[in-house]
């Protein structure tokens, strides 16, 4: 039995764009954004480096490190599933810090690292990996749902394995709502430590 998968290609659509241009990760809808080698110009997560946090327990909190999360990418399909699990009518992707919302990319959150998203302007975003859900995003959602004090922690469970991806800018350019996304998934080889 082979553990190899060859290169794959698919096409999706960018249906929403968001910019976090305030003092935190919450983002607002925009029609277009500009990418350069440090991320989305004007975004909260812009920069070549960032400080480590709870997701990097191998570093002392606040350690300067490479910024691999220029862009937060979610999908309409997975957002709808999270909203259903939370029993809310819809989920504002900006409340959980989205930059891109896609449509038509199956199982977006399972897209492997190294995958490239190509945009018509020539911009390319390289996927770093899965963006695990956290209670901070859950609290942001809870803040706009009066009487639902279960969402802060409920979001973590509801979004498990469907929270989306983070990526970094491989090639600058302008991105617009409605852009086609050409996805290139590199060949994969399952890596297993001997005996496991």
TrEMBL record:
Entries under InterPro entries matching the protein: MoCF_Sase_C, MOSC_domain, Pyrv_Knase-like_insert_dom_sf
Stored Pfam families: MOSC
Coiled-coil annotated spans: none
PROSITE patterns registered for this protein in UniProt: MOSC (PS51340)
MOSC domain sequence ranges: 27-184
Domain of life: Bacteria
Classification via PANTHER family: METAL-SULFUR CLUSTER BIOSYNTHESIS PROTEINS YUAD-RELATED (PTHR36930), MOSC DOMAIN-CONTAINING PROTEIN (PTHR36930:SF1)
Protein name, UniProt field: Molybdenum cofactor sulfurase
Native organism: Maritalea porphyrae
Lineage: Bacteria, Pseudomonadati, Pseudomonadota, Alphaproteobacteria, Hyphomicrobiales
């Amino acid at each position: 039995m082979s553990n190899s998968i060859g290169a794959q290609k698919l096409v999706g659509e960018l249906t929403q764009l968001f910019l976090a241009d305030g003092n935190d990760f919450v983002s607002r809808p925009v029609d277009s954004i500009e990418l350069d080698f440090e991320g989305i110009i004007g975004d909260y997560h812009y920069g070549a480096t960032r400080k480590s946090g709870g997701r990097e327990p191998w570093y002392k909190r606040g350690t300067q490190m490479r910024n691999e999360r220029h862009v937060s990418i979610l999908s309409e399909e997975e957002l709808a599933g999270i909203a259903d699990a939370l029993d809310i009518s819809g989920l504002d992707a900006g409340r959980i810090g989205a930059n891109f919302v896609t449509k038509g990319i199956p199982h977006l959150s399972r897209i492997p690292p190294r995958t490239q998203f190509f945009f018509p302007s020539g911009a390319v975003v390289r996927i770093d990996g899965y963006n695990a859900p956290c209670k901070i995003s859950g609290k942001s959602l809870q803040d706009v749902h009066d009487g639902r004090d279960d969402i802060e922690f409920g979001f973590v469970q509801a979004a498990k394995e469907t929270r989306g991806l983070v990526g970094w800018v491989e090639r600058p350019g302008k991105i617009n709502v409605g852009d086609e996304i050409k996805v290139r998934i590199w060949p994969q080889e399952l890596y297993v430590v001997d005996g496991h």
